[in-house]
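This section describes the prediction task in plain terms. A model, or a person checking by hand, is given the sequence of a single protein chain and must write out its three-dimensional structure as a string of tokens. No templates, partner chains or ligands are provided. The sample shown here is typical of the held-out split.
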Amino acid sequence: MNRSSFIRNTALAGAGIIFNFQSLAALLRIQPSNIKMLRRNVGIFTERGGTIGFLQSKEGFTVIDSQFPDTAKNLIDALCLREQLPFNYLLNTHHHGDHTGGNIAFKGLVQKIVGHENCLAHHKRVTQSNNTADKQLFASKTFKDELKLKMKDEKLKGHYFGAAHTNGDAVYLFEKANIMHVGDLMFNKRHPFVDRSAGASMQNWVKVLDLIYKKAEKDTIIIFGHALNPGEETGNREDLLKFQDYLNKVLQFAEAAVQKGILKETFIKNTAIPGVTEWSGPGIERPLTAAYEELSESK
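The expected answer:
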């Protein structure tokens, strides 16, 4: 073997070792439990932040929400290990960092990023205020009331039903799979964050859940933005009614406090909501504060 051949072969062998180590590193980062397939090539990815939904179609991947830069990289690695396909769409349910922070990991990979027009406005506003806009990847396409995307073996519809968790929350439905991603419009057994700075309305949230329920069918799989317990990130439309009942009870509790003249600082120290048993864990002060403020302002 001449010297040039030796150098070339050595370099190739070294590259192979590096590739194998990188692949191994990717596999070690990605736990099998992070991905759960649901139906018709639609699945979810859970690691840290809002639940990610995805479609693996013949023509490429469609991803809903992106968590954070590091976890989004793990998702990308996991999907590429499943099959080498392009990333056609990345859709955001709303602007919060645990749903859009990982957008940047798709830079140079995804063809279009899509969100509601208010989602994009809030995403830009918040990140510019925090001086982190240079670390973001913003939506390149927005919609107002309804979105339609066609793939070869699936159809996706996006819907906007009004102010709720924010005033820019979108719902995405994979029609053939009959799977709906509702983002943070659904907190399963976990006290919700209510972003009043982004136009949230708990009273309207109750109405929005009615509209989503009517769009869903009995066998529609609902993907939730967050769940208190691992493994409970999906459910059915009856879970929407349970969360709606929870929100109503929070509003009723706050209404009674406002009418009695109880101070907000005293009210938000409550550790339980009358009639609520399934929703627990930390963060109860978040919906209590939002409900009290919203109802006080409407007086």
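For orientation: The first strand starts at residue 35 and ends at 39.
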